Amino acid sequence: MADDRATADLIDAYGDTIASCQTQLRSFGARDAFHGPISTVWCRADNGLVKSRLNEPGAGHVLVVDGGASLRSALMGDMIAAAAVQNGWAGVVINGAVRDVAALAQLPLGIKALGSNPRKSAKAGEGAVDVPVSFGDALFTPGAWLYSDEDGIVISPEPLAAP
């Protein structure tokens, strides 16, 4: 792990004061461990808002995308993920699908998603930005902190010190 804030150690140290996401997400980026303040997108089979957000300065944030657990079409591919890297995002967590998996694996970005589908999504920009989203029995609130590694994802209302 890039730093000493392993999710299992954070759970051991902070217990029920932090949440863990029960959704089993796969890692697709070259960075297995990442953390940062949360920004969110809520959308359904439409990645217009995902593209828009990841083309803005990320300042080390993690974009959490609630795509309704749909694998019908990808909400992020290699070009949008490359923009996230260029704009300083720490990671992207998608409750849905990605595409261009081989290219994503080469990018220095934390990427977690349910799976992959080569089908493109709509681009109308329907959905909502920076609203609380929930999946895996976890609430992702804009401004809270997300920590992710090979063991999973934990969420804290504030930054956590290493245990």
Automatic annotation (TrEMBL):
Keywords assigned: Lyase, Metal-binding
Record-linked Pfam families: RraA-like (PF03737)
EC number: 4.1.1.112, 4.1.3.17
Cofactor(s) listed in the protein's UniProt record: a divalent metal cation
Catalytic activity field: oxaloacetate + H(+) = pyruvate + CO2; 4-hydroxy-4-methyl-2-oxoglutarate = 2 pyruvate
Family matches, as InterPro entries: RraA (IPR010203), RraA/RraA-like (IPR005493), RraA/RraA-like_sf (IPR036704)
Top-rank taxon, per record: Bacteria
Quaternary assembly: Homotrimer.
Function of the molecule: Catalyzes the aldol cleavage of 4-hydroxy-4-methyl-2-oxoglutarate (HMG) into 2 molecules of pyruvate. Also contains a secondary oxaloacetate (OAA) decarboxylase activity due to the common pyruvate enolate transition state formed following C-C bond cleavage in the retro-aldol and decarboxylation reactions.
Family of the protein in this entry: Belongs to the class II aldolase/RraA-like family.
Protein name: 4-hydroxy-4-methyl-2-oxoglutarate aldolase
Gene name in the database record: rraA
